[in-house]
Amino acid sequence: MALPDSPSALFSSASQELSRGESSAGFWRAQVVGWLFLAIIGFCIRLAVFGSAPAAFWLTLTLEPLAFLLTSAAAVWHGRRASSKHSPLLVLACSVLLCVAASALLASIAYAIHQLFPPQSLRVMPENQYRLGFLYYMGILSIWTLVYFGVAAELAARTERISKMKAETLALRLELEHLQSQIEPHFLFNALNTIVAEIEARPAIAEEMTRRLADYLRYSLDRRGQGLCGLDEEIEAAQDYVRIQALRFDRQLEYRCHIDPASLAWQIPHMTLQGLVENAIKHGMRSDNESFRINLRTRIQDDELVVAVDNPGQLRAPYDLAKGGGGLGNLCRRLALCYPGRNRFSLHQQDDRIVAEIRLRGDPVAP
């Protein structure tokens, strides 16, 4: 949903906003307090001009409550008519005419009240008092109208911004869920096929794989809708994943963790470590050794969470983040959704080992 691009569109949005908001407690509080303040100011002005407390009192007691009723009725009427989506110019013209009519009415009543007091009881009796009264109330009502529509336009723009943010958040959540749904299927099918193949030949291996797979899937399904998970939970799930893969390929796979305790409180996207470990196993399996070691390291450096997974092997070509696909491309897109502009991923060679490293800064964006 886009913000209104033109004044007329914003004016229409303001009308719709007022149709929902003219009966709110906030509007009526502002209306009562505003006119009470104007009544006090009006009484002081009349007392200073006319020098008669009774005249100032009766003028204030009559005119300000009447102005309060007129503006309240205009707000309610406008709110009910706003849903009809009249032209902004028509609404503006009606507002001007109502201001003129209300000012004329108030000035006429003020003139009539003036006539009830003897001229000698008033310090000043302007010859053009009707015109002055009309201009006075025309100014007040014009200011009230400008404030009314100005606040309404701001509320409408804020509502549009909130609606746009909600729509963007929903789109990001759907995209993140779509990316997460692509993670497990191939791994699950391969693990189940291995279990079926091992049931008769090596039932103990099949039993352990079943138990590990159940723990892994329980974590995966329980956290799927959350988007973000604690680093400590991710580490435990990654251990189950590594053990399942070791049983699948019948290889001696050593998995070492070097964890900074301060990093365990960080929230990272669901299945982040699984993506890093999966990449490490894929590269490590290319070696001819019967066993290989995967290291997981976490630390806090310059207010950043640094997570690195390394494995033996030679990187065939520098990793291109722009062209990255598969599991790592999926991981990078999920990091970008949860840590927009505050994440870095690198895949590089360090001696005889391949290192995949992510850096996260600040608080994540909850999907």
TrEMBL record:
Task: Indicate whether Amino-acid biosynthesis appears among the record's keywords.
Answer: no
**Keyword annotations of the record:** Kinase, Membrane, Transferase, Transmembrane, Transmembrane helix
Q: Domain of life of the organism in this record?
A: Bacteria
Annotated ranges, domain Signal transduction histidine kinase internal region: 175-252
Instruction: Quote the EC number.
Output: 2.7.3.-
Output one GO MF annotation.
phosphorelay sensor kinase activity
Q: Name one Pfam family in it.
A: His_kinase
Mind telling me which SUPFAM superfamilies this protein's record contains? ATPase domain of HSP90 chaperone/DNA topoisomerase II/histidine kinase
Q: Which residues cross the membrane?
A: 27-49, 55-77, 89-114, 134-157
Annotated Gene Ontology cellular components are: membrane
Is the keyword Transport in the record? no
Broadest EC class assigned to this enzyme: transferase
Name of protein = Transmembrane sensor histidine kinase transcription regulator protein
Q: Which organism is it from?
A: Bordetella petrii (strain ATCC BAA-461 / DSM 12804 / CCUG 43448 / CIP 107267 / Se-1111R)
